[in-house]
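User: I'm putting together a small comparison set for a docking exercise, and I want a reference complex before I start. The sequence is below, and the ligand is tryptophan. Could you produce the 3D structure with the ligand included, as structure tokens?
Assistant: Of course. I'll restate your input first, then give the structure tokens for the complex.
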Amino acid sequence: MKKEIVLSGMRPTGELHLGNYFGALKRWAGIQSDHECYWMVADLHSLTTLESTADIEKKTIEMTALWLAAGLDPKKSSVFLQSAIPEHGELASIFATLLPVSMLELNPTYKEMTEAHPRSGSFGLLNYPVLQAADILLYKATRVPVGRDQEPHIEITREIARRFNNRFGEFFAEPHALFEKIPKIYSLKDPTKKMSKSHSPDSYIGLLDDADTVREKIMGAVTDSGNEIVYDPESKPALAHLIELLHLASGQAVEAIEKEYKSAGYANFKKAVAESISGLLSPIQERFRSYKPADVKGVLAEGTAKARTVAQKNLGDIKEKIGLLNLK
Ligand code: TRP
């Protein structure tokens, strides 16, 4: 049976954190073997939101190295660089003819991003979901593992697929987001907000944080009143989140954690959480440090060549479907 096509990406905007690991990388790594996977460094998208592009090259290499260190396997997947495949822009300009501007103005992430990022008002930011639709449909991906915050973009992608099919004839299958079983990782300072590098550094655990830093951040994480370690997300959300982190990092069941730490006290419990997280991160960091920038570039070049072959073939088919003159 043909494998299902999966594509996802991240903007190389800086250090990755535990939320990116549990919410994306670990899951991406887990589905590589039985899907045809494309993992894209969305560097063109980052131009719409980055304050400065001064270190974009460094960030691209660093993020890719972290992906590989976290288990993305270039032998199984195509790990590629968006800006090195011009077909993304070409398809985006075709897709841009299918939607009224008003639909993009209503995109809820557009409003948020205009408030959060200094490149507000740029056409690129308005066009962000159109480029994202091109990323996905260029490979005819049908599964897109992303966080819930990306739902509006997937909805626009589906709308574009439908409109293309209506106008030019059936071609694209509508892609679906893959949301199941994504653990939610929250800020260590506020269990109602998701972990994010746009909040203060002590609110998230970076994948490159050393053991001392992890301990400090976990010890400083907010908890709830009381002194028993019990899992009660309703009335003790901050503590519940730390228990979940320990569960995710160690694989230990929540009930087993409750049993073991019930009367251990917060300090001992937090120490165990910190140790477990560092135990998870240290082999990732070791692998990360073993990659030279030139190796990472080589992996990206290879993955990009592989992806581009597919992109060129599919864009050719798309142009043919539209009925554009083929000069070959
Ligand atoms: N917008 C996504 C994010 O910020 C990144 C992205 C760009 C993406 N193109 C994509 C994700 C295509 C999935 C599929 O997380």
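Residues 7-11, 42, 45, 132, 135-136, 144, 146, 150, 153 surround tryptophan (CB under 6 Å). DSSP finds 14 helices and five strands in the chain.
User: Thanks, that's exactly what I needed.
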